[in-house]
Design goal:
77 residues, mainly alpha, 73% helix
């Protein structure tokens, strides 16, 4: 179980990083500093953004469960 939670944590961490970086910039800030403020016709539709939001939230919940599982395993081991 320990190995499964460790692998799950690593996979969800990398996936969460990728999903967050795939999001389109919604305003100024650092995204406009690196060219994210320029509107592009290839930026995607709102359906893609909604699905990406759902996948990102699901991945974050799985990541949180993995963190809690590892913490409980350490506490009660």
């Amino acid at each position: 179980m320990d190995t499964f939670l460790d692998i799950l944590l690593i996979v969800t961490s990398v996936a969460l990083l990728v999903f967050v970086l795939l999001h389109r910039g919604k305003g100024g800030g650092l995204s406009s500093l690196f060219g994210g403020g320029v509107q592009s016709s290839l930026s995607g539709s709102s359906v893609v953004e909604k699905n990406l939001d759902r996948v990102t939230v699901f991945t974050a919940v799985v990541w949180l469960i993995a963190i809690l599982g590892i913490g409980l395993e350490i506490k009660f081991a």
